[in-house]
């Protein structure tokens, strides 16, 4: 047996073991009715790479109405595009999406074909896909691999190539350039030279793609182990300038490396971190920069990130500057933490820790971590007394003065947590009431 035949047999064995029983049954039913049926796309690719596959998609020569007739429980998901969902059991996990082999017309909106044509051969169906590694098919009923464009060789070489003419492939659907850099990060593959060179000519098509689609791809890219593998290419080819023209990128490598170091909860903030003001802007900022926070949140929302994602990223970037100084003392650190909601404080520490603009971990990260670990008081709710104590024990009259006194007490405790005892705070409250004329 030749090496190629050995590799083919090994890969078929991998796929035969990986295809779920319900997907195999769907393919067997279609095949028994005289139709070709294959698994295709990301699940095939990931199984061959030894990764856990996601959803298994089936492509078939059967027309949508023929698929509907063959199965008892179906959902006409997208009949105009040839897609039917087969329900093989309980829950969404049992659903198998089946799409008819199709050719496509022009993409006048740079996102979806104007029309599709059913009845094309499998190779033509594979030819419309974006990347060669996503154009590999496996027929479980007949144990056959179909790889007309050399996708398995690309998996071995760890390279991403567009199917056919890269410029045509990317220009017809602008989202494909985002998918290319996302897969570069997810798979940790390199784009071949011709495929990367085709990105810039396709940027006008990317500009036509809905921001929801763009943010979805960006979110997936940021979830990769090393987003930098896609972000550096995205910056180099103009994708970043297209989707985030507000982002000032001076040192792309350092920016992308920081995103890699960031935790899952701070990846989006790290992406926007160059918008933070700090020592390089000749601005001394010791508090939450609300202007920056609002600007970042607005940019993220324009990209159709959720309000929660955008607002969190904005606040975190609004304190990102804190990592740029070594002179933070414990009291200053507590005052900055007090400006943040409790749920954002650990994320702020994670963001600071990912900053390597200075040697070693930023000092504020360690100081802030100590403050949280020691449960130091950072909010009015952490004080040893509350509004009822002021009313009952100090005789403060109801009204705004209660909040004023508590705010002033918190300021003292932020300076010195040792003052956070009932007796000391009540004594201080008496004095503050006199000063405030209460």
Record keyword descriptors for this entry:
single chain, seven-stranded mixed β-sheet, 9% strand
Could you explain the architecture of this structure?
It is a single chain. By secondary structure, the chain is an alpha+beta fold. It has 23 helices and 11 strands. The strands form 3 sheets. A 7-stranded mixed β-sheet has the order 3-4-5-2-1-8-9. The protein has a two-stranded antiparallel ribbon with strand order 6-7. A two-stranded parallel sheet has the order 10-11. The N and C termini lie far apart (96 Å). The chain has helices at 3-18, 21-32, 42-49, 64-70, 122-127, 151-157, 166-172, 175-187, 193-197, 203-206, 211-222, 228-237, 239-243, 252-261, 267-272, 290-302, 307-318, 330-338, 345-353, 363-373, 387-394, 400-415, 422-436, and strands spanning 37-40, 57-60, 74-78, 83-87, 95-100, 102-104, 116-118, 137-139, 144-146, 159-160, 190-191.
Set down the secondary structure blueprint.
Layout: H1 3-18, H2 21-32, E1 37-40, H3 42-49, E2 57-60, H4 64-70, E3 74-78, E4 83-87, E5 95-100, E6 102-104, E7 116-118, H5 122-127, E8 137-139, E9 144-146, H6 151-157, E10 159-160, H7 166-172, H8 175-187, E11 190-191, H9 193-197, H10 203-206, H11 211-222, H12 228-237, H13 239-243, H14 252-261, H15 267-272, H16 290-302, H17 307-318, H18 330-338, H19 345-353, H20 363-373, H21 387-394, H22 400-415, H23 422-436
Parallel strand pairs: 2-5, 10-11
Antiparallel strand pairs: 1-2, 1-8, 3-4, 4-5, 6-7, 8-9
Helix pairs in contact: 8-11, 8-12, 12-14, 16-17, 18-20, 19-20, 22-23
